[in-house]
Amino acid sequence: MTSISDPLSLTHGPVWRNRLALAPLTNTQSNPDGTLSEDETRWLEARGEGGFGLVMTAAAYVAPAGQAWAGQLGIAADAHLPGLTRLAERLRTTGTASSVQLHHGGRRADPALSGRPNQCPWDDPEKNAVAMTAGEVEELVADFVAAAGRAERAGFDGVEVHGAHGYLLGQFLDGRNQRTDGYGGSLDHRLRVVTEVLEGIRATTGPDFQLGLRLTPEGNGITLEEGRETARQVLASGLLDYLDMSLWDVFMRPRGGADGLLIEHFTDLPRGDTRLGVAGRVLSAADARWCLDQGADIVTVGIGAILHHDFAARAVADGEFQARPGPLTREQLRAEAVGPAFIDYLAAGWDHVVA
Ligand SMILES: Cc1cc2nc3c(=O)[nH]c(=O)nc-3n(C[C@H](O)[C@H](O)[C@H](O)COP(=O)(O)O)c2cc1C
């Protein structure tokens, strides 16, 4: 039986010291130009000190048109490199592996921030977005690849491509994407841009660079059957070190009424040497063990890691560990290296976290 304290080897790059990964968590602490602030650096460094096997940044925009939130981290220009380089160095000293989540908001970007019209695979008057041209699709792939190159130059161990939650790569996977240029319509064609991004990153980064992909299992315009088929194909591609399934609740049943638990629709897929991660409502050592017992290799923790910077160290040391129930006071959150801007962001949408 796998234990959460077991180290994890991947096809490329360093061994993770255990099975617990910090979830990508948008924290709106970056400077207006997308460079890292000390608060954001410290938030992540504290999770490295707190024992996580992998520390991943929040979704970072790969191109200015993809920016979706004020205070979002950027990896779109070399001007973003000095802060990222400092973060990678500080994470390395904590003993964690490190990753940048690569993101483009697409139709869900914020033109008021990006200063550019929204991009989308299809014409979308609701979001004031015009279907991307073939040239823009090519640029999009190049932007993801260039951003991965920057992460590598900054000293990160890898990147996770954000293909989940209905952002631009997820919009390509969406059934509403009926482009006729080979990038829409059938599931194979809808998956093509993701595959080109992964192939491009593999071709330009070194043999020790870890490549992950985050996917939505169902919803955001895809059926569970399509979500499963997408996962099957990327697992079989051999391009990935890990697939991170964003389940929102690891214990849930499929929404559409399919049999069994949602997690089981992914743990039973052949995965070769690719590792499988799951995320959603893991709040105790027992929850994390349960995910591994179901067949996952990696357990990705979000809220639990906000409540305790050292969720991972505690869960590894104590099989009975359970995160304290929220909400926490601002002072308690500050003591966990959650900065004021992040606390304000959480207070606006997560009242079970901030009192
Ligand atoms: C404040 C907050 C910010 C988030 N930001 C991101 C993000 O930048 N990228 C992403 O893929 N998921 C994001 N998520 C989803 C988390 O990564 C995670 O999958 C989800 O919260 C479920 O795990 P949890 O119950 O352990 O928090 C965010 C969630 C929260 C609560």
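The chain is about 35% helix and 15% strand.
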